[in-house]
Design brief:
This protein is mainly α. It is built from 17 helices and twelve strands. It has a two-stranded antiparallel sheet with strand order 1-6. The chain has a two-stranded antiparallel ribbon with strand order 2-3. A two-stranded antiparallel sheet has the order 4-10.
Length: 419
């Protein structure tokens, strides 16, 4: 058992537990790519194969799911750290490390619950959040404790509580972005409030984050290599990544219409994508590898602030933030600043660029869920495989994926409606 502060520091630094735990089900279910029938049909992981077509029945085919297990493993580690650190005495010599370790555990627990909620819970709507099913909120490391599902409102309240506590404890600067910082906690709070429609609060937290870290890469200086973006590059606020066989370059085909939406002057077209063996492939991960970057970077926070400005009617400020991001994404002398005449036009531009800039980061599924409550932006997703067509309409119950049957059986919790 961990006993010393250094033991607990080693635990929060275990990146294989905390930084590789984002469920990939959101990327699998979103509309940024498509699969050919043969590449889909040969998938050996039922949750990935069935997740692609938003299957209703026998989703896991009797198997377990990393999408549920890995975040809850991180939560278990967080709870153990939070329990043990209260037994370590604080003094002038260890105060900063003590606060950082506790703040990190709170951040990782909030991060894990937020990610789980995007995949296994309904879309957050304030009027119904008290009645909708949330997650089992485990706050102690006892794996035998029977914990019922909280409400969706209580789930988000826990995330916000963990992160606001973490902000007060985390350091301003960290040596490597696998460790949480104040900027990371502010950034995640901004993401949370954007997701639940608290745009004024999301704007405030985005401001706080960008006051601490606001660096943007100049894509003109990025070399067109196999994987152009370095891991831990200057935009990364918090690093996390994940992958699955369905998302490998040998299977995944980036959405054709999405690719065509980048102009030739847009450097993202060549830095994010590449023609390989006659196929278009994706290579733009901020992980610097074939793994999908699922962390937080400054470009996302600028886009959150821009969206919140637009929704508040602050068109000039919204377009300033959008153009700050885009000017570094286009060839020199190839960028024309975007202007908007009203908040709706500004929001249209921002949401379009959000989809293009944050491609394959796991945010698209989150956006589909929240934007589907607005008829202006609601979309029906369509998959075509051989002679079969599959659809996912706005508000469909399958936007909350089924909890694995083994979890339902062992934990004795309620399954999501519809399954």
């Amino acid at each position: 058992m961990p006993q010393t502060l250094n033991d607990l520091q080693a635990m929060v630094d275990n990146s294989s537990i905390f930084n590789l735990s984002v469920p990939i089900q959101g990327i699998i279910a979103a509309d940024e790519y498509y699969l050919d029938f043969d590449r889909w049909n040969t998938l050996s992981v039922p949750a990935q194969k069935n997740g692609y077509i938003w299957a209703k029945d026998n989703f896991y085919e009797g198997r377990d799911s990393d999408g549920w297990n890995l975040p809850y493993r991180a939560i278990f580690y967080s709870n153990l750290i939070l329990e043990e650190i209260e037994k370590v005495k604080r003094n002038d010599g260890n105060r900063n490390q003590w606060s950082s370790v506790k703040g990190s555990a709170l951040f990782f627990r909030g991060w894990s619950y937020y990610q789980l909620a995007q995949v296994f819970c309904d879309t957050y709507v304030e009027d119904t959040a008290e009645e909708r099913l949330g997650l089992p909120i485990r706050l102690i490391p006892d794996i035998n404790a029977r914990i019922a599902r909280a409400s969706l409102a209580e789930t988000y309240e826990r995330v916000v509580s963990d992160l606001t506590q973490a902000v007060r404890l985390l350091p301003t600067a960290v040596t490597v972005p696998t460790r949480p910082s104040k900027a990371a906690a502010y950034a995640l709070l901004s993401k949370v409030f954007l997701q639940i429609g608290g745009f004024e609060t999301a704007l405030s937290y985005a401001d706080s984050c960008l006051a601490l870290k606001n660096t943007l890469l100049d894509y003109n200086l990025v070399e067109e290599e196999d994987y152009p973006f370095a891991r831990f590059n200057d935009e990364v606020i918090f690093h996390s990544s994940n992958t699955g066989i369905i998302l490998s370059n040998t299977r995944l085909n980036p959405d054709t219409l999405l690719y065509q939406s980048y102009t030739d002057a847009d450097l993202r077209k060549s830095l994010f994508f590449k023609q390989t063996g006659g196929r278009l492939t994706y290579r733009g991960s901020y992980d610097g590898s074939s793994r999908m970057f699922c962390g937080i970077a400054t470009d996302e926070i600028y886009l959150i602030r821009a969206e919140c400005f637009a929704r508040s009617g602050m068109v000039r400020e919204a377009m300033e933030d959008l153009n700050v991001v885009l000017v570094s994404r286009f060839k020199e002398k190839g960028f024309v600043p975007i202007s908007a005449s009203d908040p709706t036009e500004a929001l249209d531009f921002i949401l379009s660029e959000r989809k293009k800039q944050l491609v394959f980061r796991g945010t698209r599924w989150h956006d589909l869920k929240r934007l589907n409550t607005d008829p202006r932006y609601a979309v029906t997703l369509i998959r075509k495989l051989s002679d079969e067509t599959y659809e996912l309409t706005p508000g469909d119950f399958r936007y909350a994926l089924p909890i694995p049957d083994l979890v339902i059986e062992l934990a004795e919790i309620q399954q999501n409606p519809g399954y």
